[in-house]
UniProtKB/TrEMBL annotation:
Gene Ontology cellular-component terms listed: plasma membrane
Pfam families per the UniProt record, alphabetical: BPD_transp_1 (PF00528), BPD_transp_1_N (PF19300)
UniProt cross-references to PROSITE patterns, sorted A to Z: ABC_TM1 (PS50928)
Transmembrane spans: 9-29, 105-126, 138-162, 174-196, 231-257, 277-296
Topology with respect to the bilayer: Multi-pass membrane protein
Family affiliation: Belongs to the binding-protein-dependent transport system permease family. OppBC subfamily.
Name of the protein in its database record: Glutathione ABC transporter permease GsiC
């Protein structure tokens, strides 16, 4: 266990280094002069060349990009992600302020996805080849194919504008969380449904399931107590990976429903060329994604002792 964790942590460090390097490099490949663009928005007028030169020197833009990157990386390792160009607020503070709303949305979406996917996948597998199975597969296909933003606007039109039972936008109440959670969770539910169905079909063919049935156990107990537990082992991996994807998907959903969070903060920072905020959010998201993967691997090992650490079968 110890050697495995050390190996994974070392790999994670390399991955995060790559994330920081790519993020920092791509930001500076955007066209135009970032110093002039930022000053224009700050001053609400065209800055003079002296003002641009002074700002460039103050922010270190006159240094070579590798030197700028090493300085930013050194600060990031100490927990300093820089400050916003426009509010002079620490990026760490901005991220921590926006994080709860995004985590709330991601967690609610996860609940929606699992509540839809697990029962539907089980019913589809148990009723293989029937109308229930075909309907489940068609629904999953539609869910995978449907863009989040399109579903979000459709839900707003039906439940907010036509029926008037749920609010259109905002955050802070359960009602304002319902539509965004359904929008973000539907795509994940479709993926997990197909995986649960496939996994259940494999488990239901195992000898121990036939043994349980031969003992006279009710089918409900055989399916939900004996088969489902083992069928969920591969699902854990996908769920963990999908949680990281939910954070990315939250960007679109937060824009559609005008929810404050990391998504809105990132979009605003991109349009404003607020580089420290963009880089800070990208690095933070990378840390969350890598940490989630590590947690999934360890959990996978404990759910099924036959699986060796690292994903190899013992």
């Amino acid at each position: 266990m110890y050697n495995y964790l050390v190996s994974r942590l070392a790999t994670s460090v390399v991955v995060l280094f790559g994330v920081s390097l790519v993020t920092y490099g791509l930001v500076f490949l955007t066209p135009g002069d970032p110093a002039r663009t930022i000053l224009t928005q700050q001053l609400e007028r065209q800055p003079s060349q002296n003002e641009v030169d002074a700002f460039r020197a103050e922010q270190g833009f006159d240094e070579p990009i590798p030197i700028q990157y090493l300085g930013w990386l050194s600060d990031a390792l100490r927990g300093d992600l820089g400050t916003s160009y426009y509010t002079d607020t620490a990026v760490t503070t901005l991220v921590l302020e926006a994080l709860p709303a995004t985590l709330e949305l991601a967690a609610a979406s996860m609940v929606v996805a699992l509540a839809l996917a697990i029962p539907t996948g089980v019913l589809s597998a148990v009723n293989r080849g029937t109308t229930v199975d075909y309907a489940s597969q068609i629904g999953a296909l539609i869910g995978v194919s449907m863009p989040n933003f399109w579903l979000g606007y459709l839900l707003i039109m039906v439940f907010a504008l036509v029926l008037g039972v749920l609010p259109v936008a905002g955050a802070g109440s359960f009602a304002q969380l319902v539509l965004p959670a359904i929008t973000l969770g539907t795509g994940m539910a479709a993926v997990v449904t197909r995986l649960v169905r496939t996994s259940m079909l494999e488990v239901l063919e195992e000898p121990y399931v036939d043994t349980a049935r031969s003992k006279g156990l009710r089918e409900r107990i055989v399916v939900y107590k004996h088969a489902l537990r083992n069928a969920l082992v591969p699902v854990v991996t996908i769920v963990g990976l999908q949680f990281g994807s939910l954070l990315n998907g939250a960007v679109v959903v937060e824009i559609v429903f005008q929810r404050p969070g990391l998504g809105m903060l990132l979009v605003d920072a991109v349009f404003d060329r607020n580089y420290p905020v963009v880089q800070g959010i990208a690095l933070f998201t990378g840390v969350v994604f890598v940490a989630t993967n590590l947690l999934v691997d360890v959990t996978y090992r404990y759910l099924d002792p036959r699986v060796a650490l690292g994903g190899e079968t013992a």
